[in-house]
Structure formats: C-alpha cells, structure tokens
Design brief:
Length: 1080
C-alpha cells in the first residue's frame, strides 16, 4: 500500500508514464474513462496526451499494453488532434502490437489502424503497414496483410490505394511462411472483388499452382460490385444513406450509394504495373544490325526489340532514334516479313508507352498508311494493330492532316484501309472529341470515296461515315450529307446501326433525342404547306412532282416537293377568300391593294399547321409578282412574305420562290426595309447560313450596285443578330473580294463594314485573305479592324429558340464560335516544305561548329519566310530544332526559339501535333539563367498556345515533370504562365492534378519569387480542380499546423466550412505564411 500511495494521487497523464506497470494500468483505465467523457473534440485536454499515445500502444507490459490500446482507440476516435499522431502510433502498432501472442492485442491494433483511416489518415496508415511487410517477423507480416485486407473490404478501393499493395503481392506469394502466403491469397481475392480482371496482369508471373488456386477462388465471388461499408468522417451523408438502405432491408436492387459519377472506379491494369526500362537493354550493335544488308541480321535486331516491347508498361525515355529506324523498316524494307515485325515493334512501343508515345505518332502514321499498299494478310494485320495502338496515344486532331493527305492516294487498298482506320478511330471518340471542325474535312474526303469505282473503298467509306453518325449524332453530321442521295444515305444509316462504340453506347444519343425522325418505311416530307399531309392525293392529281432534298431547320434531311401551280391555287383557295384569289392579277392597283389587305388578314388568323406556305408564296409570285409597280402593294406583299415565314412551317423550297424577288427589291428606297424584314424572317425559318449563301449569290449575279451594297449591309446586321456559326466563310470571302473590286464606292464601303463584323468572330486570321489588296484599300480594312479591337461579338438574339426547341447547348455554341477562326486558317493555301528539309540541312543544324549551325538555322528561317503558310509535315526538322534548344551558344537558342515562333504562325492550329515533341522542350528553356532567353522562351510558348489552345499542354505528365525540377527560374516562370492562362479556360484535363503536389512544394520553396508565383497560381488550380481534390493533396505537406493556425483555418469562409475541417483532420499544412487567402 505504501507503493500505491506514491502514485495513486498522481494525475492521469503522470500515471500513464509511471515506471510501475500497475500505475500505468490504472492511468490507462482512467484515461479511457476520461476520453469517453469529453464531449468537445477540440477540447484543450486532448493536447496533453499528444506525446503519450505512442507509449500507450508500445507498453512493455502485456497487461498494461491491452489497457493502453483500448485508451488509444478511444483517443483516436474522439480527439480532434489525433491525426498528428498517425505515423508514430501506427509504427508502434506494427512493431510492438502485431508481434504479441494475445489475439486481443492484435484486434485492438487493427481497430486503431482502421480508426485512423476513418479520420482521413489512410495514406500514412497504408505507408506504415506496407513497411511492416518488410519485417522479418512473419506474425507482423500476416497482421499487416490482414489489416490491409480489412481496410479494403470496409472502406473500398476509392479510399485504399491498390497500386502499392499490388506491387508487393508477388513477393508475398514467394514467402517461405505458409501463413503469409495464405493471408496474401485472401488479400488477392479481396482485391479482385474490387478491380476484377485488372489484377491478372500484375500476378501473371507468380507460381502456377498459386495462380490456379486464386482462379478457383475468384470464380466463386459474386458478380455484383462490392460496396463501401465503413465511411470517412467527411462521408457522413453516404453513411446515412447506407444506414437507411440497411434499415430498409438491404440493397436488394443493387442501388448505388454514390450519386452521379461517384461509382467504384474502374481500375486500369496498366496503372498497376511497374514500368520497365528497355533502352539500356538494347543490343549494343542494334543500330548497326538494323541497317545491315543481310535480312537475317535485320531480323535478329528486330526480334530483340520485339522481346523488349512485350513488357506491358515501358519507362519513359528518348525513343526517337528507335522509332526512326522502325519507321524506315516499315516504309522502305523490301522484306515483307520484316515490315510486319517492325510494325509489331511499333505497336508494342505504343502500347507500353501510351500517351508518352504520342510525340512520335505524327512521324509514323503517314508511313504506315502508305504501306497499306501491301496486300499480304499478315502484313496488313500487323500494320492495323500498329496504327490502332498508335492512335490511342494521341488524338484524331493531331494526326488528321496526315490521314487526310493519304485519302487522296490513287491506290484503292490504301484508300480502303485508311477509311477503315478512320472508322475504328471514330469508335473511340465522343461528340466533344469529334467537333464539327474535324468532322467537316473527314466527311468531305469520305464522301468522295462512296462514289469510288472500287466496291471495297465504297464499303469502307460507308462504314466510316456510319460510325461518325453514330458518335456525333445526326444533328452534327447531316449538314455534311445534304447532297447525298437517299439510297446512299440509307446505307450510311444502316452502317450506323451496326456500329459498336468503344464506350458501349451511342454517345450522340442526346442530340438524336432532339431530332424529329420519320416513321420507318415512310417518306419524310417537309411540312412546307398544309397540303403536304395529302401527298398521295396530290401526286395522283398533278402527276410527277419535282423532288428536292432540303435540310430542314431541325437538322434532318427531308424530301420537299415543288408543287405545280394548279395544286398551289387549289390549296390557296381553301384558305384565302375567293375575291382575294381573283384580284391578285387585277389591272387596277387599288384592287390589288385591297387583295393584299385581305391576304394579310387571312394569314394573321391561320394556325401554323393549317398554313400552306408554298402555295401562298406561289400566289404572291403570280403575275405581276415581284415586278409590281405600285410601291404600296409591293410593301404589303413583302410584309406578307415575312408573316408567312414567321407563322408557318416555312421550307427552303418556299424560300427559293421568293428570295430572288426580295434581293431585287432590297435596294429600293421605299420597299428595301420590307425586303430586309422578309429576308430576316426567312433566315430565322431556314437558318442564316443557307439564306445568306443564296442571297449573296443572287445579289452578285446581277449588276445593280444598290442591291449589292444593301445586301451586304443586311448581312452585316444579320450576322450580329444570328451569330456566325455555320456560315460558309470561304464563299463569303470570295464574294467580299468581288465587292471590294467593285467600281461603286457604296459596295466597297458595305463590304468593308461586313469585314469588320466578321472580324468580331474570326479575329486576326481574317486579314490574311486580303493582304494582296491595294495598299489604299488595305488601310481602310485595317482601320475598320482597328475599330473592332477590344469589342466582343454580341450574343445571338435570333435563330436560337426556333431551332433548338428552347434547349440549346450554349457550351456547344461557344465551342463552334471558337472553331471559326481555325476554320478560316484552314482555308489558307499551305506550302509543303518537307522536301526542303534535306539531310544536308539537318546535318548543318547539328554541326559541331556553331557558325555552321547558325547557317543551318538561317536557311530554315529563309524557307519558312518564303513559304509563309506551311503544312504540318516538317520531316527531320523537329528533332534538329529540339537539339538546338539545349545549345551551349545562347544566341543560337534564341534563334531557335524565334524559328519556333515562326513555325507556329506559319503552321497555324496544325502546330498542335508538335506540342509533345517540341513544345515541352520549349518549357524547359524557361529554366535558363539568362533573362533574355527566358523571355524568348515565354514568348514562344505563348505564340504556340495562341494556335493550339491549352489542352495539349496540360495533358499528360510533362508539365508536372517540369514543375518537379528544383529550378527556381523554371518554377517561377512556369507558375506565372499558368497563373495567366488558367483563368481563361472553361475546363482543364484531369492531368492538371499531377501538378498539385509540386505546386505545394513550391509554396515551401526557399526562393521567395517561386513562393509568390505559387501563391498566385494556387487559386486558379482550385478553380478548376475543386476544393476537395486540393485539400486532399495537403496531406502530403511537411509542416504541421499549430493550434492557432488551425483555429484561423477553421474560421475560413462558410462556403468551405465542412471541407476545411477535413483538411485540419489531415493535420498537415505548410507554414502560416504560405496559407493563401483563397483558402483562408
């Protein structure tokens, strides 16, 4: 009792540290009671025990340790600051608890690990458990595996990272201890529940007996997807939903706990594999053998590569030389067996490198497509596999120029295989990755092929067009099929129905829902007149009808019949007063005026479905028609045309009847405004692009300058009202050039005004088309463009609701507007300069003598200047310029950057296919120590992004790898650039998340400028990635928050209160000086 009296009066925390085990037992018991009583998780009482919890779990006395574990579990469950103890406590559990003989100790240890995961500390827990797998004590290894298995079973694969676990699984199966192997087997079965067949590749090399046993266990698993049963503190809503389902008798319907896209993630087996480095494993004489004259030696070299690229995941590196020699074999080797072997090697490289191979795609795609002239099945199959694998490493946009160039080849086999490749590529696209700007050139090329003399070429083209129709939907594709006859259109639709997309469903379905489809077996008829519903009777009465295929306002190709005058009179007489019909051609202008008044009243009272539009406009065109001499009658006639277009189902057939007369009257002083009103109504009914094309053609086919100038003025105003989307820019530019050459100054002035309006939508590229105009005229154009500087194109006020059904996609419309500038640039004639990039020139650029290198660069500058606009194929120039970016002579580096700026301007949007190969090395130059070099590099990057947009730059790991480099110049320039660019983007690729850990690292950088730039960029990262993703990444930061910082952080904006709390539970943040205001 004397001993007891020494410690019995001590405080709880002192008892817990006492040297007597009985005192510690008593202290742990009292601590447990205390921890269960404290209701406030932020009470300062918790902080007293921060340094003691590790001792709770590592007590050397077995009895005391059990009590300590119980108290530690209560502490972790209830204390707000418990997260700060994660690493040391879990380490103690692994090393001092999992080796204990008592089962209860092990159970409590596992419970503590799971509780830390629940309070958002999954990563450090998993890290310590994985360290425990290297312990020499098999009991510890077994317990760690069991803990990981239970954590995965309860929290699921969204919380528990599987990649590091799968990485060590094969090693566990090799253990000498049966208990370890058995527990590893249970873990493998649990992992398979969550990711299914993605687990097979990483385990393909384990013992065949073990693999067979696993296969047997996997087969027994239920097919239903597993569900999370235990939830993080930040997942309380999910927890409540789960408990409701349980209370209601389970989830019988297999309902999903998550909303929207929050489903158990699909795991890519590739991501679970370890990358293999193969470049150093190439035979030393590989490059000599591949050039050998004996085919056996070349075969030996290729077989060595084939064995290496069979590794499913390859480490990134410089594969340029390897790709170059493989491309040469595919393109020029006369031995077809070696061609097939080289194609297999390319396929293996593309499969193993994935997106990292994308920078080489543009080099090899043309060669493979042209090699399809070989007809041997084994060669064709190998080439197909190669080009399909390469396509998955890049985008269709990046290789579109190469594909379209081959489409004009005269060899039918090449045309067939190219079309089939396009079809297979389309299957991997979505409506967003297959925009109209990309569909347009592909559809144009494929439409030529459906008329080819070779049946196999036609079949392949039909399949490609059908796939495009399935992916993008009829609304997007039909404008390009307007001139296709019905039989071929049916064939395209038949092919579309058979297509199975890579995503398993018709991604263009949303668009299709908006479209109006005719019933099967019936001829679709545009309801241009009410009498169209009686088509059978009409055809019987009037004999053969003139049939015209028209594109209706809803995007569907409909058949429209031009009715004979007798039929029109019959239909008009059914809805108009008899006196009105009789007085239409009266010789007395007053009677004609009275007739028009009755006509107008009748039209105003008609319902849309009852109005025979074509019949009515035919009556208006009846003699004297548009030659009416009385201006009052003509004004009313033009007003009636506008009414019919506004109130009825007005077709293009009806429009063609009246447009010529409207254009003839648009320059009339008294009737011009009525003519413009009618043309605007027709544009709203039949879409502005079609109406504008018809009106411009009619205006410039006559010699009346007044009509021409007023037509141009009407069009300028119409573009502002309807927007620029869908307009035929090429035809417009041709007509504007004709107008600029007119002798009448009013026509020239109207043309310049129209150019100013077009400039609002197209931008600076528009000027390129008029650089050959006379200096005086060009200065007027420049002055008009100058007026438009800083102005934004007005939002369309017409032509939206009628054609979109009130559910138009604003985002899609904005995307179309953004594509206009690129479409204009695509019209420019471009020069092929690849033949001028000779081996001698490339050798000069790479010479040891800097003067000769400069000569080579000067020649390149001269070639680009002479060509002005160039095609994207620049041969070996890309690799040569890339080497010069690392030149020891900084003057040559700057000259290279200047050339790259020239390339961007000369190549236009097609420069995007060189972003990975040339663009990323430019970013590396931002790390140069010289200010002028960095400034030149930044100007070059900006010149490229003006042409390419930001998407290609943000995709992949390249940007994060650059930011990872601990170069203060590179970091501050790159972060400053991102801070400028990110606010201007509506969306970013998910790969931007890879930059976040390095962004946080920059917040702690020793260089003040780097820290400043990181703070500037941080809000814009959060703007795109969201608070949760950014907050989750803070768990990897090094410096702990003190209690005052936590309090400040918790007082942050109400909108992020709950999310902020999850960050504090993670317990790690940068120092208070680095906490940006956007998070505070």
């Amino acid at each position: 009792m004397g001993d007891d009296s020494e410690w019995i009066k001590l405080s709880i925390d002192q008892k817990c540290e006492h040297k007597l085990w009985k005192a510690r037992v008593n202290g742990y018991e009292e601590a447990l009671k205390l921890f269960q009583k404290i209701e406030d998780e932020k009470s300062p009482e918790w902080s007293k025990y921060l340094g003691l919890i590790k001792k709770f779990v590592t007590d050397s006395n077995a009895v005391a340790q059990l009590k300590g574990l119980e108290a530690a579990l209560a502490y972790v469950e209830n204390a707000h600051v418990a997260g700060k103890t994660t690493g040391e406590v879990i380490s103690g559990v692994v090393n001092k608890v999992f080796n204990q003989p008592k089962a209860r100790a092990k159970e409590l240890g596992i419970d503590i690990c799971l509780m830390y995961i629940e309070i958002e500390k999954g990563e450090p827990v998993q890290e310590e458990l994985l360290k425990g797998l290297d312990n020499k004590n098999p009991k510890i290894i077994v317990a760690c595996i069991e803990t990981l298995r239970k954590a995965l079973s309860e929290f699921g694969s969204k919380i528990i990272s599987l990649k590091p676990i799968i990485k060590v699984l094969p090693k566990l199966f090799e253990s000498r201890e049966k208990a370890v192997r058995d527990e590893a087997k249970l873990l493998a079965v649990e992992i398979y529940r969550w990711i299914r067949d993605a687990l097979r590749p990483p385990l393909q090399n384990i013992n065949s007996v073990q693999l067979k046993e696993l296969e047997e266990e996997w087969v027994k698993l239920p097919p239903a997807a597993p569900k999370q049963t235990r939830f993080l503190r930040s997942q309380q809503e999910l927890k409540a939903k789960f408990e409701q389902q349980q209370a209601a008798g389970g989830d019988a319907d297999g309902g999903n706990l998550y909303d929207g896209d929050e489903v158990v993630p699909q795991v890519d087996a590739y991501e679970l594999l370890e990358a293999v480095e193969i470049l150093s494993k190439l035979p030393k004489d590989f490059y000599d053998k591949i050039e050998a004259k004996k085919w056996q030696e070349r075969k030996e070299a290729l077989e060595a590569v084939e064995m290496l690229v069979k590794n499913p995941k390859l480490e990134a590196g410089d594969y340029a030389d390897m790709v170059k020699v493989l491309k040469k074999v595919v393109g020029k080797d006369t031995n077809v067996m070696l061609v097939a072997l080289a194609a297999k090697c390319l396929a293996g490289l593309a499969t193993g490198l994935r997106k990292k191979f994308g920078q080489y795609a543009g080099q090899v795609v043309p060669t493979i497509l042209e090699k399809f002239k070989e007809k041997k099945p084994q060669v064709v199959q190998a080439l197909q596999e190669a080009i399909d694998a390469i396509f998955l490493t890049t985008t269709l946009q990046n290789i579109s120029e190469d594909i379209l160039a081959v489409m004009d080849n005269k060899n039918p086999t090449i045309k067939q295989q190219t079309s089939l490749f396009i079809a297979r590529s389309f299957r991997h696209c979505t409506p967003s990755s297959l925009p109209k700007s990309l569909l347009k050139p592909f559809c144009a090329a494929l439409l030529k092929h459906i008329n080819d003399s070779a049946p196999e070429v036609r079949d392949a083209a039909f399949e490609a067009l059908g796939t495009a129709l399935k992916v993008a939907g009829e609304k997007a594709v039909n404008p390009f099929l307007a001139d296709v006859d019905k039989l071929k259109l049916d064939r395209i639709k038949e092919c579309a129905e058979k297509v199975e997309l890579a995503y398993g469903k018709n991604t263009g379905g949303a668009a299709d829902k908006k479209e109006c489809r005719p019933a099967a077996g019936k001829t679709p008829v545009l309801s241009g007149a009410a009498g169209d519903k009686d088509t059978k009777d009409t055809s019987a009465k009037s004999g053969p009808l003139k049939k015209t295929v028209c594109l209706a306002h809803d995007g569907v190709n409909l058949v429209v019949f031009c009715l004979q005058i007798e039929v029109c009179e019959e239909r008009a007489s059914a809805v108009l007063p008899a006196s009105c019909i009789q007085q239409l051609d009266s010789g007395n202008w007053k009677e004609r005026l009275a007739c028009m008044e009755e006509f107008q009243k009748a039209v105003e009272l008609m319902e849309r479905s009852e109005m025979p539009c074509q019949a009515l406009v035919r009556m208006l065109a009846k003699k004297p028609g548009w030659k009416e001499t009385n201006f009052q009658v003509m004004q009313m006639k033009l007003h009636i045309v506008a009414l019919i277009a506004q109130k009825g189902n007005f077709s293009k057939t009806s429009a063609q009847i009246v447009l010529d007369g409207l254009v003839d009257k648009i320059g009339d002083v008294k009737c011009g405004s009525n003519a413009k009103e009618a043309m605007t109504a027709i544009a709203e009914a039949c879409l502005l692009p079609w109406t504008a094309e018809q009106v411009m053609s009619m205006a410039f086919s006559q010699k009346n300058p007044k009509n021409q100038s007023e037509t141009l003025n009407w069009l300028s105003n119409a573009i502002k009202e309807f927007g620029f989307s869908g307009l035929n820019v090429k035809a417009f530019i041709s007509n504007v050039k004709t107008a600029l050459a007119a002798t009448n100054p009013a026509v020239r002035t109207a043309a310049i005004t129209l150019l100013g309006v077009m400039y609002l939508y197209v931008g600076p590229p528009l000027r390129m088309f008029f650089e050959d105009e006379k200096p005086a005229l060009l200065s007027q154009i420049d002055a008009e463009f100058e007026k438009m500087q800083g102005q934004t194109a007005p939002a369309p006020t017409r032509g939206t609701s009628r054609h979109s059904g009130g559910s138009g996609d604003d985002g899609e419309e904005r995307d179309e507007q953004e594509d206009i500038g690129n479409d204009v640039v695509d019209l420019l004639p471009r020069t092929e300069i690849s033949d001028k990039i000779t081996a001698e020139l490339v050798s000069k650029i790479g010479d040891k003598n800097w003067k000769i290198r400069k000569e080579g660069l000067d020649e390149v500058t001269s070639i680009i200047n002479d060509a002005k606009f160039i095609q994207p194929n620049i041969g070996e120039l890309s690799a040569a310029l890339k080497c010069r970016l690392n030149d020891s002579n900084k003057i040559l580096v700057q000259q290279t950057l200047s050339i790259l700026q020239q390339l961007a301007m000369a190549m236009g949007p097609n420069i995007r296919q060189h972003v990975k190969n040339l663009g990323v090395p430019i970013i590396t130059v931002l790390g140069d120590s010289k200010n002028n070099v960095r400034a030149a590099a930044l100007a070059t990057v900006n010149a490229w992004t003006e042409q390419t947009g930001m998407k290609e730059w943000l995709e992949g790991e390249d940007l994060s790898e650059e930011l990872k480099k601990e170069n203060p110049f590179l970091r501050q320039e790159l972060l400053g650039w991102l801070a400028d660019k990110l606010p201007t983007l509506r969306s970013v690729p998910s790969d931007l998340l890879l930059c976040v850990p390095h962004l946080y690292s920059c917040l702690e950088d020793r260089n003040g400028d780097v820290r400043k730039k990181a703070q500037d960029a941080l809000p814009f990262f959060m703007m795109h990635l969201g608070f949760e993703k950014m907050a989750k990444a803070t768990g990897k930061l090094k410096v702990l928050l003190d209690s005052e910082e936590e309090a400040n952080f918790q007082r942050s904006g109400t909108g992020h209160a709950r999310k902020s709390q999850s960050i504090f539970q993670s317990g790690r943040r940068s120092s208070s000086s680095q906490i940006p205001d956007c998070i505070r």
